[in-house]
């Protein structure tokens, strides 16, 4: 009967798709319904898009027999999810907000584990003439001349936090900067898409070294301003505090923190990408805040 | 636009080599959306016939409301489901956030208006003489509904296909409640979104082509069955 045929076909389709996912998962070497515990990490996009997390994830999963669920988010969203208990641990680069997160009792401790530097990249022609100025002077010139466009992350991320800090250091009120003119553009997206937007518009943008290097071949942007103590970019891992937020997996999280700060993994982090890009993407700094 | 051609070549390459990551994304996307569509249909088809065949106060308003929700943005449904299942939310204890299960639930909520509304429309399109005749011949309520359903089957199947299409093609909800976790909740649409944001256009197009191919195959199969 026609109706039965359709019914059985739909069931058949469901079975085929289940079969495909089982085969696909088996081919990838993981089980379709893992009995392993799952640890949720909210990471800043720059650690994810550079591929560092993709590189470290299988090592951690194998060593501790834990499934890592890695969510790539802007720092603003990451802090939110952590406060709600939807993630167990953060890897992030937004020092002022990290300190507040710990001070408010949501985070256990801020543990730096790697660093690199921010830099301002832009078109080779350097229309605003800011090459090799200090970051604060460069921002000042951009604001005063309006001669070059600047693409901001505009997404409450760690990178945007740093951008705001530079504006503040240069003596500007950020609210004024936001309304400064058509030259100031807010992408509202992660570092990768923001870099691509800046490249398309031949504009300047603030980026971390890691993401810039891994996207460089797709971009028409060059380093413009790369010296200044304010450009230090420290990545920390923070466990969500089980006493404030119910249900987070503190034991698994502590394993992750030990893992990231262990000498073996610190060495791998330091070597990540060196062969491909000729430069360190991340410098290890287990547990200690690096000085300039 | 050479990227589209390159994307097509990449798609063929991924299919022929049975690339494991793409296979698992395909399997997962289908499992989630097919399950959501079937479960939602099982609930909404009877519910739709109840709405159609009964008279009650506010019926017209209800139908209007259902039709309004055809256009609800997927990210709004995603936000709602996220708040529901977040650990800080009412159903947080079920620990379902960022799992395929919550994506199924979310897609069911998303497509329910379409299934309900179009089922009611489908039944409305059936000549009133048919249920009247059935009843006058002594058919029970259940048998009457069955007869009308048989007459409206093409429109109902179209509704199911449309609901499936909406489920498998949406990004906002899958991203918010699934988290796009590699190997666990990554589906076609969220993968395409990620690869595009990383600038890997070729892979994005390839994934898009494979998704459309799968939808095409499903459509062809169901169509041939309709015609027999």
How many structural domains in the coordinates of chain A? 2
Q: Roughly how much helix do the residues of chain B carry, as a percent range?
A: over 70%
Proportion of residues in extended strands of chain B = under 5%
Q: How much is the radius of gyration of chain B in Å?
A: 20 Å
Radius of gyration of chain A: 22 Å
Number of strands of chain B: 0
Describe the structure.
The complex is a heterodimer of chains A (292) and B (228). Chain A is of the alpha/beta class and 292 residues long. Chain A is built from 13 helices and 10 strands. With 228 residues, chain B is mainly alpha-helical. Chain B has one domain: Orthogonal Bundle (MetI-like fold). Helix content of chain B is 77%, strand content 0%. Chain B is built from 11 helices and no strands. The mean pLDDT of chain B is 91. At the A-B interface, α1, β2 and α9 of A face α2 and α11 of B.
In brief:
The complex is a heterodimer of chains A (292) and B (228). By secondary structure, chain A is an alpha/beta fold. Chain A has 13 helices and ten strands.
Summarize the SSE layout with pairings:
The complex is a heterodimer of chains A (292) and B (228).
Chain A: H1 2-28, E1 38-44, H2 45-49, H3 52-64, E2 67-73, H4 75-84, E3 89-92, H5 95-103, E4 107-122, H6 135-145, E5 150-152, H7 158-169, H8 174-178, E6 184-186, H9 191-201, E7 204-208, H10 209-215, E8 222-225, E9 232-240, H11 250-261, H12 263-271, H13 274-277, E10 283-284
Parallel strand pairs in A: 1-2, 1-3, 5-6, 5-7
Antiparallel strand pairs in A: 3-9, 4-7, 4-8, 4-9, 4-10
Chain B: H1 2-16, H2 20-53, H3 59-68, H4 74-85, H5 100-124, H6 129-136, H7 141-151, H8 153-169, H9 172-178, H10 188-197, H11 201-227
């Amino acid at each position: 009967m026609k109706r039965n045929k359709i019914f059985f076909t739909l069931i058949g389709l469901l079975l085929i798709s289940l079969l495909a996912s089982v085969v696909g998962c088996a081919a990838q070497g993981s089980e379709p319904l893992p009995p392993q515990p799952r640890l949720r990490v909210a990471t800043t996009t720059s650690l994810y898009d550079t591929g560092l997390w993709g590189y470290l994830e299988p090592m951690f999963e194998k060593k501790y027999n834990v499934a890592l669920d890695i969510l790539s988010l802007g720092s603003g969203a990451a802090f939110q999810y952590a406060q709600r208990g939807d993630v167990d641990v953060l890897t992030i680069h937004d020092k002022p907000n990290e300190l507040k997160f710990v001070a408010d009792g949501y985070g256990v401790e801020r543990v730096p584990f790697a660093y690199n530097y921010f830099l301002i990249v832009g078109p080779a022609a350097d229309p605003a003439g800011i090459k090799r100025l200090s970051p604060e002077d460069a921002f000042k010139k951009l604001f005063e001349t309006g001669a070059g466009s600047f693409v901001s992350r505009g997404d409450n991320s760690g990178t945007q936090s740093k951008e705001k800090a530079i504006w503040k250091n240069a003596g500007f009120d950020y609210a004024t900067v936001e309304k400064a003119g058509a030259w100031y553009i807010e992408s509202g997206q992660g570092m990768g898409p923001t870099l691509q937007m800046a490249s398309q518009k031949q504009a300047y943008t603030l980026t971390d070294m890691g993401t810039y290097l891994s996207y460089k071949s797709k971009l028409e942007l060059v380093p413009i301003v790369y010296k200044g103590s304010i450009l230090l970019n420290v990545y920390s891992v923070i466990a969500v505090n089980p006493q404030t937020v119910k249900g987070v997996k503190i034991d698994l999280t502590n394993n992750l923190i030990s893992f990231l700060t262990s000498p073996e993994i610190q060495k791998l982090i330091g070597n990540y990408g060196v062969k491909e890009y000729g430069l360190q993407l991340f410098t290890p700094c287990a547990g200690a805040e690096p000085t300039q | 636009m050479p990227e589209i051609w390159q994307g097509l070549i990449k798609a063929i390459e991924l299919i022929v080599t049975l690339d494991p990551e793409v296979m698992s994304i395909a399997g997962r996307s289908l499992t989630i959306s097919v399950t959501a569509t079937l479960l939602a249909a099982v609930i909404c088809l009877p519910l739709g016939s109840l709405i159609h065949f009964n008279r009650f106060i506010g019926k017209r308003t209800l139908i209007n409301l259902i039709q309004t929700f055809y256009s609800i943005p997927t990210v709004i449904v995603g936000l709602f489901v996220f708040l529901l299942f977040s650990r800080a939310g009412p159903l947080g204890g079920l620990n379902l956030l960022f799992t395929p299960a919550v994506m199924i639930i979310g897609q069911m909520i998303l497509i329910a208006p379409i299934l309900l509304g179009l089922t009611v429309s489908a039944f409305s399109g059936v000549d009133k003489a048919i249920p009247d005749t059935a009843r006058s011949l002594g058919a029970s309520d259940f048998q009457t509904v069955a007869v009308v359903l048989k007459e409206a089957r093409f429109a109902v199947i179209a509704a199911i296909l449309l609901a499936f299409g909406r489920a498998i093609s949406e990004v906002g909800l899958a991203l918010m409640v699934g988290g796009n976790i590699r190997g666990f909740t990554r589906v076609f649409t969220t993968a395409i979104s990620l690869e595009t944001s990383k600038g890997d256009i070729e892979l994005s197009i390839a994934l898009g082509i494979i998704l459309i191919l799968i939808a095409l195959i499903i459509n062809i199969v169901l169509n041939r069955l309709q015609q027999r």
